[in-house]
Amino acid sequence: MKALTLWNPWAALVAWGYKTIETRCWETSYRGHIAIHAAARKSGQLRRIAQALPCVTEYGEGYDPVLHGITADYDRLAFGSVVAVGELVTCFQFTESIKYRLSDFELAIGDYTPGRFAWVLDNVRPLSVPVPAKGYQRVWNWTPPDDVDVSLHPTNREAVEDAMYWGMLHEPKE
Questions:
Q1: Rounded distance, CA 32 to CA 37, Å?
Q2: C-alpha 22 chain-centroid distance
């Protein structure tokens, strides 16, 4: 299956469903089942970023213990491991015209500079146990061990339709 490596805390945020859009400076034509890999390297800068994230849900409903665990316990996150599986449902170039569709939390945890690409993820679920693996740049191939369940739940049709809508929005060309 295909895999994508992300730095923590972003890999953990994707695994636990707090981050549904990964931003990159390049696009991909790949759509489908994808493993989320947490990069092996830790850094003080990323630790500070993790600790600065608000420990509330994107809807502002108050303290969230899972999010708190991701932000406060950076060194205890899984590194150098596949941490989740999901679906990459679309990829499109980000424009200012769709910024209003994103939550404040999503905007805070991604680089939504115009011209970057939004990779929309759906049906992401954390693996019951992180699987150690060497990560790579770009989309890469990962063979899950036979005893690891990488199955997904049925696709959330509304999320796919939203993703398709986002991908069709373009700012006027000058």
A1: 16
A2: 5
Q: Are 38 and 126 in contact (CB under 8 A)?
A: no
The top-level CATH class assigned to 2-168 is: mainly beta
For the question of whether the overall pTM of this predicted structure is more than 0.85, the answer is no
Helix/strand/coil (H/E/C) assignment for every residue in the chain: CEEEEECCCHHHHHHCCCCCEEEECCCCCCCEEEEEEECCCCCHHHHHHHHHCCCECCCCCCECHHHHHHHHCHHHCCCCEEEEEEEEEEEEECCHHHHHHCCHHHHHCCCCCCCCEEEEEEEEEEEEEEEECCCCCCEEECCCCCCCCCCCCCCCHHHHHHHHHHHHCCCCCC
- Of residues 128 and 139, the one with the higher pLDDT is 139
List C-alpha distances in Å: 112 to 16, 24, 96, 99, 106: 21, 9, 9, 8, 9
> In this structure, how many other beta carbons lie within 10 angstroms of the beta carbon of residue 29?
6
Calpha distance 39→5 (Å, rounded):
6
pLDDT band at 18 (very low <50, low <70, confident <90, very high): confident
Q: Where do the structural domains in the chain lie, given as residue ranges?
A: 2-168
How crowded is the C-beta side of 143, counted as CA atoms within 13 Å?
1
Q: Could you tell me what percent of the chain has a pLDDT over 70? A: 76
